[in-house]
C-alpha cells in the first residue's frame, strides 16, 4: 500500500527539464546526505525550506532580514551549513554579488574546522577566475569534482562581479587562522599583479598574524618593513592615527615574543613611539610577556606601573604576571596589594575594553576575575614569609568566592606548611582534600614529606625519639602514596631520602636510592645532597666517600656542588677527621663552585676545620691552614672566633711560639 502511494505521488510531480539537473548546491560541501534536485522557478518561493536546514534561518527570512545580515550573523556563529544554504539561494535567484561572496568566504574562516579549500573554491566560482595558477596552490583540495561538489556558475557569464580588497582580506583571514603563511603571501602578491587591487594595512596585519601562528617572526618583521615602505603606516608628523596601525605592530610583537626574540620586541615598541603610534594594552601585554619569558621581573613591574600611570584597564592575565614578578622579587605585600586591587575592581558589568590574553603566552581568553592560578600565586608567596595561617585563610576565602580549589591550590598550601615544618597540619589538609573530592598528586605528597624533613632538621641531634616519631609518619605517608597509587617521581624520592637521613636511618636512604635507580631515574645533585644528610646526622665519615664515588659512577658523572662539599666537610670534622675535611675544602675552593661560595661560607668552613685540628691537638696543621686562609685574602684576625682559636693554638704550642709570635700574622 505504501509503495503504491509513493508511485502515485511521483506521477503527480511536474516534469523537470534535464538541463536544470546540472545545478548542484554549495550545501553539498558540508552534507553527506542526499541533496534534493533543484526546484522549478514557479515553486521555488514555496520550497526554500528544502535548503534552509536550520529553523533559525527560516525565521530570519520570515522576518524579511536582508541576506547580508543573515550571512554575517550565521558566519560569525560558525554555522557554515546555513551560510551555504543562504548562499545557494542567492545564486539560484541570480542575486549573488561581491558582498555576499565576501561574507561566505569570511564564514569559512569562522567555522571549525577552518575551511580554506572551500573559501578558495567560492572565490573561483563566484568571480569566475582561478585564484592560483595551474602550477599548484599548495591546497590539494582546491580543485573539486564538479559532479560531486558542483557549484552553480550562472553568475560567471554575467561577468559583473569583481573582487575587492575586502574579498582578499577575508581570504587572508581564512588562511591566517591556520598559520598558512605561504598561501597568505601568494594571495598578497596576486592582489596587485593579477587583480590590480593594492593590499591595505589590514591585509598586511592578517599576513603578520599568519606568520605569528606559524612562528616565523622574520616574515612578520619583513611584512612590517614592507608596509612602512609603502607608506601604509603614517609617520610621526601625521595627526590622525588609525587603530589598524597599532594592530600590525602588536601582531609582529606577539610573533617575536613566541619565538623569544626579545630584542626585536623592544625595537618594535621603540618604532611605535618614533611614529607617535599609541601603545595599546595589547602592546603592553606583549612587552610584559617578553619580560616574563626572560624572568625580567623588574621589567614586568616597570611595564605594569606605566600602564597604571596611563590608567589603562588591566585584566587578570596582566595581574598574574605582576604577581609572579613580585613573588620572585620577594615582595609579598606587593603581591597582596596587586591581588586585592584587581579583586576590588571587578564588577558585574566589567568594561568591554580590556587587555586581552590572546597575545599572551599560554592565554586563551580574557581573565576578568581572579581565578585559581591567581590564588595559587598568592598562596605560594606566603612560603617566603612562612605565614602558614594566612595561606589557610586564603584557601577559605577562595572557596567562599566561588573559585573551586584544585590539586594545585592544595599543593601550594601544603608547600607553605612544608616551609614551616607543619607536617601535622599537612596531614589534616590531606584529609580535607580527600573530603572535597580532590585527589592529591605526587607534588602534594612530596611537599608533605618535605614538611617532615624541615621539622626534623629543627630538632636537636640528640633527640632521637622525636626524629624517629616523625620518621614513622614519613613511612606512613610514603606507603599511602604508593597505595593510591601515586607513582613517586625524582623529587619525591629526593624528599624521602632526605627524610630517612633526618630520621637517622641512612640504610633506608640507600635502599630508596637503589629503588630510584631501578625505576630508571637519573640522580641529580639534590639526590646526593639528601643522601649526605644521613651521613651528616650520623657523623658517618665512611659514608661520605661512598657517596662521592656514587656521584663519579653516574653517567654522566654528577659534579658536587657547594652544598654537598659543605655537608662532607661538616661530617668529616664532626667525626674527628679534619685531614679529609681539608682536602674537600681545597677541592671546593679550586672547583668552579668557588664563584658561588660566599666569603662567609669560606670563613665557616675554615673555622670548622681549624676547630677540628684543635680538638685533635694538631696545632701545626691548624696554623698551616690559617696561612692558607690568609693567602686566599681572608684576614682571620677580623673574624673573632677564628682569631680566638688562633691565639689559643699559639698559646698551647709552646715550641712554635718561640719561633713565631702572634704579630707575625697581623
Task: Provide a descriptive summary of the structure in words.
The protein is an all-alpha fold and 666 residues long. The chain has a domain at 1-192. Helices cover 63% and strands 0% of the residues. The chain is built from 33 helices and no strands. It is elongated. It starts with a helix and ends in a 9-residue tail after the last helix.
Instruction: Please give the largest β-sheet.
Output: none
Number of distinct helices:
33
How large is the share of residues in beta strands?
A: under 5%
Q: Would you tell me the overall average pLDDT?
A: 82
- Shape field: elongated
N- to C-terminal separation?
124 Å
Unreliable spans are: 1-62, 134-159, 349-364
Structural class: mainly alpha
Radius of gyration: 37 Å
Overall number of strands: 0
Helix content: 55-70%
Amino acid at each position: 500500500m505504501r509503495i503504491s502511494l509513493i508511485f502515485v505521488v511521483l506521477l503527480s510531480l511536474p516534469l523537470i527539464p534535464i538541463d536544470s539537473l546540472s545545478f548542484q548546491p554549495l550545501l553539498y560541501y558540508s552534507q553527506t546526505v542526499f541533496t534534493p534536485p533543484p526546484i522549478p522557478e514557479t515553486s521555488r518561493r514555496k520550497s526554500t525550506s528544502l535548503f534552509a536546514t536550520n529553523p533559525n534561518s527560516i525565521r530570519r527570512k520570515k522576518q524579511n532580514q536582508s541576506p547580508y545580515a543573515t550571512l554575517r550573523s550565521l558566519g560569525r556563529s560558525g554555522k557554515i551549513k546555513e551560510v551555504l544554504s543562504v548562499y545557494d539561494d542567492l545564486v539560484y535567484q541570480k542575486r549573488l554579488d561581491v558582498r555576499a561572496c565576501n561574507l561566505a568566504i569570511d564564514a569559512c574562516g569562522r567555522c571549525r574546522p577552518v575551511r580554506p579549500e572551500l573559501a578558495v573554491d567560492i572565490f573561483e566560482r563566484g568571480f569566475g577566475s582561478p585564484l592560483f595558477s595551474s602550477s599548484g596552490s599548495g591546497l590539494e583540495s582546491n580543485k573539486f569534482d564538479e559532479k560531486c561538489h558542483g557549484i552553480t556558475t550562472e553568475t560567471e557569464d554575467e561577468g559583473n562581479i569583481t573582487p575587492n580588497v575586502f574579498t582578499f582580506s577575508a581570504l587572508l583571514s581564512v588562511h591566517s587562522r591556520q598559520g598558512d603563511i605561504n598561501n597568505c603571501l601568494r594571495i598578497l602578491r596576486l592582489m596587485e599583479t593579477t587583480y590590480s587591487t593594492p593590499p591595505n594595512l589590514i591585509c598586511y596585519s592578517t599576513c603578520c598574524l599568519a606568520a605569528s601562528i606559524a612562528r616565523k617572526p622574520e616574515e612578520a618583521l619583513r611584512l612590517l618593513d614592507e608596509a612602512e615602505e609603502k607608506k601604509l603606516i603614517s609617520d610621526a608628523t601625521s595627526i590622525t592615527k588609525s587603530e589598524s596601525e597599532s594592530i600590525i605592530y602588536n601582531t609582529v610583537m606577539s610573533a617575536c615574543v613566541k619565538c623569544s626574540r626579545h630584542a626585536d620586541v623592544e625595537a618594535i615598541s621603540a618604532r611605535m613611539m618614533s611614529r607617535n603610534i599609541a601603545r595599546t594594552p595589547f602592546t603592553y601585554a606583549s612587552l610584559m610577556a617578553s619580560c616574563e619569558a626572560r624572568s625580567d621581573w623588574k621589567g614586568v613591574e616597570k611595564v605594569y606601573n606605566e600602564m597604571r600611570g596611563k590608567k589603562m584597564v588591566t585584566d587578570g592575565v596582566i595581574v598574574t604576571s605582576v604577581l609572579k614578578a613580585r613573588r620572585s622579587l620577594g615582595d609579598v605585600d606587593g603581591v597582596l596589594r596587586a591581588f586585592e586591587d584587581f579583586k576590588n575592581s571587578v564588577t558585574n558589568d566589567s568594561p568591554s575594553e580590556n587587555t586581552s590574553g590572546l597575545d599572551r603566552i599560554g592565554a586563551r581568553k580574557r581573565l576578568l576575575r581572579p581565578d585559581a592560578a591567581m590564588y595559587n600565586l598568592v598562596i605560594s608567596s606566603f612560603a617566603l614569609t612562612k605565614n602558614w595561617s594566612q595561606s589557610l585563610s586564603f584557601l577559605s576565602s577562595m572557596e567562599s568566592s566561588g573559585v573551586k580549589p584544585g590539586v594545585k591550590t592544595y599543593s601550594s598550601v601544603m608547600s607553605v606548611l612544608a616551609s614551616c615544618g607543619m607536617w601535622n597540619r599537612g596531614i589534616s589538609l590531606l584529609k580535607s582534600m580527600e573530603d572535597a573530592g580532590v585527589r592529591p598528586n605526587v607534588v602534594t605528597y612530596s611537599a608533605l614529606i618535605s614538611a617532615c624533613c624541615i621539622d626534623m632538621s629543627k630538632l636537636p641531634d640528640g633527640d632521637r625519639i622525636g626524629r624517629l616519631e616523625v620518621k614513622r609518619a614519613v613511612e606512613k605517608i610514603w606507603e599511602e602514596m604508593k597505595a593510591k597509587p601515586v607513582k613517586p617521581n625524582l623529587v619525591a624520592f629526593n624528599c624521602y631520602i632526605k627524610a630517612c637521613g633526618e630520621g637517622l636511618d641512612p640504610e633506608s636512604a640507600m635502599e630508596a636510592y637503589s629503588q630510584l635507580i631501578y625505576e630508571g631515574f637519573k640522580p641529580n645533585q639534590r639526590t646526593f645532597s639528601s643522601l649526605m644528610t644521613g651521613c651528616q646526622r650520623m657523623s658517618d665519615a665512611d659514608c661520605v666517600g661512598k657517596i662521592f664515588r656514587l656521584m663519579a659512577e653516574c653517567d654522566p658523572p654528577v659534579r658536587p656542588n657547594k652544598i654537598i662539599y659543605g655537608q662532607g666537610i661538616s661530617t668529616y670534622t664532626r667525626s674527628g677527621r679534619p685531614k679529609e675535611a681539608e682536602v674537600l675544602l681545597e677541592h671546593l675552593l679550586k672547583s668552579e663552585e668557588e664563584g658561588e661560595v660566599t666569603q662567609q661560607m669560606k670563613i665557616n668552613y675554615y673555622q670548622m676545620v681549624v676547630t677540628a685540628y684543635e680538638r685533635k691537638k694538631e696545632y701545626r696543621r691548624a696554623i698551616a691552614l690559617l696561612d692558607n686562609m690568609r693567602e686566599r685574602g681572608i684576614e682571620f684576625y677580623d673574624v673573632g672566633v677564628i682569631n680566638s682559636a688562633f691565639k689559643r693554638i699559639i698559646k698551647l704550642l709552646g715550641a712554635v711560639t718561640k719561633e713565631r709570635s702572634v704579630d707575625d700574622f697581623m
